[in-house]
Amino acid sequence: MPLWQIDIYPADGQIDREATRTAEEIAELGLGDQISVAFARSFLIQGDFVLAEANRLAETLLCDAVTERSVVAIAGQDSLNEPPGTQTTLVNVLPKPGVMDPVAASTIGAAQDAGFDVHAVRTLRKYWLGELDESSLDPICRRALSNDAIEQVVVGPLEMDQLDIGSPYSFELVTVPIRDLDDDGLAQLSREGQLYLTLVEMQTIRAHFVSLGRDPTDIELESVAQTWSEHCSHKTLAGRIHYRGPGLNDASVLDERQFDNMLKETIFAATQSIRKSLGDDDWCVSVFKDNAGVVTFDDDYHACFKVETHNHPSALEPYGGANTGIGGVIRDPMGTGMGAKPVCNTNVFCFAPPETDVESLPPGVLHPRRVMKGVVAGVRDYGNRMGIPTVNGAVYFDRRYLGNPLVYCGNVGMIPVGMEEKEVKPDDLIVAIGGRTGRDGIHGATFSSAELTSESESLSGGAVQIGNAITEKMVLDVLLQARDRGLYNALTDCGAGGFSSAVGEMGEEVGAEVWLDKAPLKYDGLNYTEIWISEAQERMVLSVPADSWDELRELCESEGVEAAVLGRFAPTGRLQLTYHGKVVGDIAMSFLHDGRPPVIRDAVYSPSPVEPLDVPELTAEENRESLLAVMGSLNVASKEWVIRQYDHEVQGGSVVKPLVGPQCDGPGDAAVIRPRMESHRGLVISCGMNPHYGDFDTYHMAASAIDEAMRNAVAVGADPSRIAILDNFCWGYTDRAETLGSLVRAAIACQDIAITLGTPFISGKDSLNNEFSFHNADGQRETISIPPSLLISAMGQIDDVSKAVTMDAKTAGNIVFLVGTTKDELGGSHLALVREWTGGDVPSVDSILAKETFLRIHEAIQNRWIRSCHDLSEGGLAVAAAEMAMAGGLGMKLDISKATTSGLNSTQFLFSESNTRFLVETVPANAGEFEGLLNSVGVPVCRLGTIEEDNQLVVTAADGVVMQVALTDAKAAWKKPLDWS
Amino acid sequence: MTSPRVLILRAPGTNCDEETAFAFERAGATAERVHVNRLIENPALKDRYQILCLPGGFSYGDDIAAGRILATRLRQHLAEMVNAFVHGNGDRLVLGICNGMQVLMRLGVLTEGVGQQDTTPATLTWNNHGRFEDRWVHLAVDQTPCVFLQGVERMYLPMAHAEGKFVAADEATLGLLREQGRLAIRYAEGDQGDVQNEILPFPHNPNGADANVAGVCDASGRVFGLMPHPERHVDATQHPCWTRRSEQPEYGDGMVMFQNAVKWFA
Q1: Residues of A in contact with B14 (CB under 8 A)
Q2: Model pTM?
Q3: ipTM of the predicted structure?
Q4: Residue A942: what are its φ and ψ, rounded to 5°?
Q5: Among candidates B15, B72, B160 on the partner chain, residue whose Cβ is nearest the Cβ of A473
Q6: Exposed site from A215, A354, A494, A616, fewest CB < 10 Å?
Q7: Among candidates A647, A756, A742, A663, which has minimal Cα distance to A698?
Q8: Is residue A310 flagged as an active site residue?
Q9: pLDDT 10s digits, A848-884
Q10: Peptide bond before B249: cis, by omega within 30 degrees of 0?
Q11: Rounded to whole angstroms, what are the CA distances from A971 to A15, A471, A638?
Q12: CA-nearest residue of chain A to B22?
């Protein structure tokens, strides 16, 4: 059967965008300045037809008649190898066989639908490169044009004559002689089999099978490894930990704690205590047990929220890693209770600085600029296609994220009241719906527990995938209909560990028998274990009563969604796996879920001694320069380039957008959405994080992150008594007592602050061992560990969205207040960062005062006294004032002489990053009421000045002007670093 | 007033169907979201509706090109339905929003009647900067027969697309469409901007479209496609600067399009 190739080039006179983008990328990566590029997107199409048909296929389906032209020929023919211009070097980039190729899948369907006899399709990208020296071709191919985790490169003419992949699989049962292995053998098996289990765990498995008098099959061993993986069981943080650290109030007193389950006794415990104190007013519905945390919203709906990380895959393949990261977390609310409808996404990223010198990159590391572009594109393409607005996020930069970028993806869903619980019934059918199973993502769950090395790329490339958002959207469309028709009793998503985890979890109480040969496969050749642990995307597992199966099948068929019965939840208490009738695995659920030996760890926290930081009083000019430097620093700089690539308004619920103000470019504090178009009740989504503070004290870092998430939410109008928060710990190698100690200390802070604020944690997730090891130029092994990175995500509520407030200054003549206490807390501040100062006190949180402050700000917003409100964070008062004024296209005049009587000099006062502070604008008529309210309850408030018509931020103190900046300069500095084309 | 029935066409990847249905309902229509497979199984379903609306989204992933696969499917299986709405007795309306406009362009129904036989008069291609963009745009309405835009001079709506740059095959085609008032709505320079034919700079014209075209209608004005999203501006609080206003209007700017559609049947 002929293999046709159809190359599609821009027509004469049209912009060759992909070529321009590629040339820029080559230049940015320092691989060549003046390389000219021409580009074609191309299709390899195996089908039984002649040239005229192939031409018709190109014209009617693949090529745009106005803006494109095509070259059609049998693959390998000369006409395909004729350069379109002066460029002579041809580089073909193809997805590796088996890698998800959504365009190819759609093309087959569309071509067949239009009557073409098409059997197989693969897409490829053709790059024609102009004059370049021989030595730069390879790095350009590897670094700029392709990613060998998922793609293959063919330089020169493509010689191919068929596309078929996969070959028939012949069954062979594999057993692993674990009973004969000594400890060295067990360690080797764990490593080489990519099980990533500890020796004690391997010994436990050996003992179990010794007691059974047989060796495990490979699939049994894999099932145990998946279930016991850090990713699936959170064994370290939910494990036994002996913690020692300095006392919180008196550092000379030892704080020693013994946890049986650290998370349960800190973060969960805080939630339990809050729920208990709320009594009948408890608004938590389902916390820390389902795929997402659930709270009440209104009479008809609950809201749920989950944030996940997808760090390791994103390090190797940024686009695919982020793509499947957002795809995966969307399935969490979809798989919560009986299924929630996703209403918004959040995304927080941590990267190394994009200007990192290419020459300084360790082997195996992608350039951070490429990582960032890939991650943003991955989230964009999945979130936008799902029709879920991406409404909130943040991007942080630190060199230590070089080998381990962090990608946090969140999703909020709405679930009808009464649908929040699920229960697998004995003898229900196990039904898989959605994408087919392939060799994708094998060992993702266990791999995520491993430390990355420069060899990870070759060892674990299989763990990297590309998503297909439309498949997931189709699943969502039928799932909500099936839910409302009551066609299933329970469901969960297929995430890490694939069917193994999903079925293993769902069948924990009942038992399950699985007929592995029934799983629909993408291609032939998968063995039974691969089917079981594949992490192929876009799959959900449902527990379906036998008499509902026909209706469910018809519903799925009606919208083109594949559904298959994989087995049944047999009430045996065992996990029984068969392949074409032959038993390949048979394990007691009790061993799988309760057999893992507890992880016992020591945790020690010893903060580095506090070095004093005496911030000098800078001149007005130095203050101005500092402000511009902070505003132009990567963490503070405008993220507009990222934000505009996300659809943040689909579903129509947008109330406060990520960019606010008359120019739609001010940095909003939090997003407000109406999840139900017909109602005025809103959800508020925000986040808080500051990895820099963790270098000083992880307790204060965690407390500050909670405070930041809270004040962001409160600033736009969220009711502080109805904010739920989520924790996501991304840390280094927690087998080291010191690293684990810094995490435990952060968890203790979470417990303390949550209880005082009455703000419950409802869900969380951790990602440990984020370290990257490589051999440097001298042959020495070097390890880069990420800074402690705790993300706090908040979901608040607002009774009437028409009361929401934005941060842009509104009207000249209005009064500006500073709420909260400013202290000499410049340790880890952005002023210190840009002036390269070390030491100092990191901001702490007075959580009792914080609670009162949040309540009163909310009260004032409810009274409609506040015209604009902005939280103070990186860069303190100076940055907040500049952002507020420039977002409103106005100016601001502030007098800090009264406020600095506390002993701070003007520079300290302007740039301190003390927590729980807001800048508030009121009309003059409300100023007295506002001030009076805060004074009456002891919340510090200071009338600082006024909004001005001009474009200047002018700050005076007793001695005159201490800072003056033209806001056009501030805005330019703030927009510059990430204003990418 | 009689309440027209709206067929909101759903396909894999359609994702603005619910809010579009909401906007029509709020304007007094009865909207039903119907999967394209249902219509292929039972083409007679079309007779129940007076308005065909193709909402936004990424039909079939926008794989190959935006709107291409759904357009191919409609041409293959539902040509009669498309014809009934576009031509028929001239008593029905068709609205394509964003991905819906992309589908209508691929079908050729918006540019019908201009250009040479067997050529494509115009297309929608990638934004000049080559990526997806979510941004509010000022729009000015030309002298036009477009039913949806009667009485409208200007609108402020969000766009959210990657492939929305209108490109005509040649100047003659562009001129012909313009003379017939079919380049109905254009990106404009600010809230007082007028219809201009010279291409405005980014971000006023966010994608580099010829003649700043944001939406195109057929010769009768009953069939209309536009890239910006009127259904995302039917409420006051959807406006990006609503918190700056001292008083809020009852509706957002986009609502009038749905009201005009309903009024046409009155």
Answers
A1: 387
A2: 0.95
A3: 0.97
A4: -140, 125
A5: B15
A6: A616
A7: A742
A8: yes
A9: 999 999 999 999 999 999 999 999 999 999 999 999 9
A10: no
A11: 31, 42, 9
A12: A677
